[in-house]
Fold each of these.
Amino acid sequence: MTYFKSFCLLETAFVFLFFGSLSNEARAAKHTNVILIMTDDQGGWDYGFMGNKILNTPNLDAMAAGGARLSRFYVSPVCTPTRANLMTGRYNYRTRAIDTYLGRAMMEPEEVTIAEALAPAGYATGIFGKWHLGDSYPLRPQDQGFQEVLVHRGGGIGQPSDPPEGANQYTDPVLFHNGEQKQMKGYCTDVYFEHAMKFIEQNESQQKPTFIYLATNAPHGPFHDVPEDLREKYKAMDLTDAYGFDLNNRRKNEKLFDDTSRIFSMIENIDQNIGKLFQHLKKIGAYENTLVLFLNDNGPNGPRFVGSHRGTKGSVNEGGIRSPLLAHWPAQLKAGTVNDRIAAHYDLFPTILAATGVEKPQTLQLDGVNILPLLKNKVENWPDRALFLQWHRGDQPTPRTNAAIVTQDYKMTFSKESEPGKLYHLANDPRERKDLAGEKSALAKDLTRQYDTWFADVSSTRPDNYDPPRIHIGNAKEPMTVLTRQDWRYAGPKGKGWTRDARGKWLVTVEQTGAYDIKVQFTKQQADSPASLTVAGGSDLFHAEVPADRTEHVFKHVTLHQGDQTIDVKVVEGSIERGPTMLSITKSESGADSQ
């Protein structure tokens, strides 16, 4: 743990122990629980209360009616950036988490998460579902303030970081409970909610406040394993109104209809679990004093209804970066409150601190602001502000590339660094069709200047600002380090980071020189000839000839030297050179070092 992070957490603990980090109002009332729920690839209009005519979301509709809602809430175009913003209250470009794979979905461990801010004030902290900010020490959720952890690895079940035993299944998934791989029973979303409900019930019995981050991987693909009864329901429906635009040829869209029926079945399953959660909160006496927040992480994972807007996941058009923010807290929030002031995911960190009465460490710099006054509708002169959102593929961000600056009335978007930005008046032009940059040149120049200032600021947070974090090997907190294609740095042809013939390297820090066992797993060779297997770790080189029918090989008692290393593995089959599917590295139990 870095000095800065240690200082922040020690400061929080000091304030709590000696001065009481809870406000007088919070101490006078029963403790406040917080449950932060975020779905994966559910678009901002995939709800009945948002005008979707097909989807059945009665529990989320009831949550919206029974609590407060921000109608212009923004998230990032894809999931890892949203999660970094959400967990830290800071722009994700400050956190090193800039993309979704190839080592760029790992967050700097120096960053202080909301769980790390709440835990010193006595909160029990738990995460259930998707983390997607690093799978190995010191990047895991249990290294970042979460005491109870039940997650899948990487960006989702069925992706390269998923263990082979999981078989890409959402039903009876293989998950990781406090670092231990476990076979679970039930549908993944049901499993997350069931464990979250048990967690808060246990804490309530001990009169301990709870913070839960419940992040489902549904309705993200793959779509082959969904709640079958709900899929049949939507499959039997006419889905032509599910997209917000005309479908010219139904026959050509059968695949789209089938995918949509599967996505909608996962969303309705989430909604059913929302209903179960609220019933459980009532049962354990935690309903009134639990703040439940709900949002989605980006736009829809395919063409779907996005109201009067356009855009899907990955886009900075409104359809790609909008989410409702629902806040249900009977003790504090008036039912039916709707506020249209702009806000974003990085605002939830300071808002949760305000709701719980936990003080922010003075040395911690947040980019978000407390939006609890908006949720309470107790604002007379809320200041104008600008929101900044950007994402694109690549090893580091490029200025003015798939980026947006959003104000209460206007929005400036940038497609490519070499192209001028476009200005839209969102109230008059929600589909972002009429570019006003020429007509309102002074405003366009001012917003461009603000964007440039922002980009320069976030890009200079650290001297090596966009270098990816390193995975640590040999730390007692993680006896086995698993390296997967999720976190490797790509070394092969462009665009093949996860394909069979891709190559990559891992940036690691070996904490202790010593003997290690390295298990290499790889796809079965297509030829009958042996495969040549080479592992390079810094200046160390290990080689083996592997029979054609093998899919793994263990190098026993090899010496890895302390310090920063690059681990590169080549599986050579004839003229083809590829990377492994994953590595597992453990300290050798006994025996002399050897190759």
Amino acid sequence: MNKDVLQNMKVKLINRDISWLSFNARVLQEAADKTLPLNERLKFLGIFSNNLDEFFRVRIGSYKRMMKLKKNAKYYLNETPEKLLSKIQEIVVKQQKDFDRVYAEILKALNKENTFIVDEKALDKKQGDFVKEYFKELVRPRLVPIMIQHTRKIPYLRDKSIYLAVKLYHRQHNKEVIYALIQVPDDIPRFLQIPATQNRKGMYIIMLDDVIRYCLEDIFFIFKYDFAEAHALKLTRDAELDLDSDLSKSISEKIAKSLKLRNKGDLVRLIYDRNMPQDLLHFLIKSIKIDKEQALQAGGRYHNFKDFMNFPQINPKKQHPSVVKTIEHPSFKGNVSIFEVLKKEDVLLSFPYHTFDHIIDFLREAAIDPHVSTIKITLYRTAKSSKITNALINALRNGKNVTVIIELQARFDEESNLLSANKLQEEGAQIIYGVPGLKVHSKLIYITRKENNKTSSYAHIGTGNFNETTAKLYCDFSLLTADNKIVSEVEKVFNFFKNNYKTGQYKHMLVAPFFMRNKLVKHIQTEIKNAQSGKPAQIQLKLNSLTDEELIKKLYIASCSGVKIQIIVRGICALVPGIKNMSENIEAISLVDQYLEHARCVIFHNNGDEVIYISSADWMIRNLDHRAEVACPIYQRNIKEDIKKIFEIQWNGSTKVRIINEKQDNPYRKPLNGSPVTRAQHEVYKYLAAKYQIGNDAL
């Protein structure tokens, strides 16, 4: 294929939201996996549910706004938003049926383990008395029933909350009906363990929704109706923050105001119990004024399945063989100074296999070291009661100059970040609220230290957040280094955060939104030239999402030129692998397992002298053009080998690996004849454990 044809080729893409729904189907596949312990399967149901909620809050809200653009919307989407919404709704309905089937399978499996989720109709007297007492003491004081039978308009309903729509009537005079709404409290555990029955031992669980259903008579006794039923519903609202353009207000004031308005965003979905009586459903639809075709979704008896991520422990002896013993990096064993280690070598940490304590220790040492003068850090999402924040406060109290670039627009973490910023500011930190027009998504630390009358610098460049909680669940890379080639450029990035006109020049790191895109294109072009010259050419790419049209086109051109391309993508993949005369040299897989694959890296073969980067950025327009991101080159040979080996292990995994294809049907990769079944995440742990000689007993 000649060069002109390649450059003018039509780019075949999967719509990003269709691809995302395919990713969520992979999560549901995990819930359906009968080889997993039941708590793991319930956890994946919860993740699926939470993912879908966020999808509706973010993406469907965007489509609703696009519909107002009319003709312009079709230009941006290649088809009308109405047509795309119809496709999305069709997929969501099918996935809901799959979800209900999987949940029913899990309930049967729970029963075999003598664990029973019972509803209000299955309680014996002893259990009923227990539930009544619990309701009286803890639940009823938190309930605010809203009588709506004579109200034309239902009062404002909160986003994400579960409501019970109640119907009260006399069996003999069922035309005399009263309707009511009860918000299920979210500050009480969703699951209540109750006494076993007299006839059968085991663990009995009743959901808070059913506790309320069981006690409806105690709530509405004054009406003297002889029948009451309650059906769940939940509203999802557009989560986009509308920031005030008032120049007199600070970004923190604007975010604080917008957060108050988020829960009052436009309605994008109402999900309801499909067994709800039609008269009650019609009343709700009319009162809430919802678009039945695009936003109404029939569901099961229970909503907010994200709570199942915290389901009570079932049979601990049969739980997942998780990595419970994190690896201490050998360079940091014992009472050693991290600064002294980094003077000699770079260190790559791979989470969750390595302990995140090394990052906290890095900051704690800096906080008390009398030779350290400056600490700078970017914060995007931090843990509750963050040890990172505490270490920074400790540094401030020890007289260090601490600068924190905190991103207030990290979606759904805005409020938490605002509180952290205020806390650090009160202690004396210099707070920089990101960069106007950009999200700061890079994961950087920069520390200066006086050594032999000179200033030495140290840095951290990572793919994941400074969050000790998610570091136990997310697979990420962190590079700690004193290499001046890298550290000096990290300093330039922080100078840009402070003075936005100082973009800087970068010879080693790829920095978005200025240079990353162009340099990635140049690296791809190098592989194309090598392939056309008959030299070995390969690109290995690991991302969360791949949607950028320009880079996808470049990968297609590379494929047509003979470059072998391997892609591991967890979530969205708009690229279509395996299409003749376009992407036949591209293979793509997705690994969804116990831990969330979050690391981004790219390996360019470069005629045998590999160029390897780890990065905070996915290959998406938002990351490359609208965020402050960093891709860091890896120079130390042993670290290069680690990254290559981890990629190889994941690429060769034969369970939990799905093939990405045009159909978006997520077929599992099957082991080759005679090949052993390998589970990539476990194999990565074994590789690191063997390398550091700690043994594999944690698996």
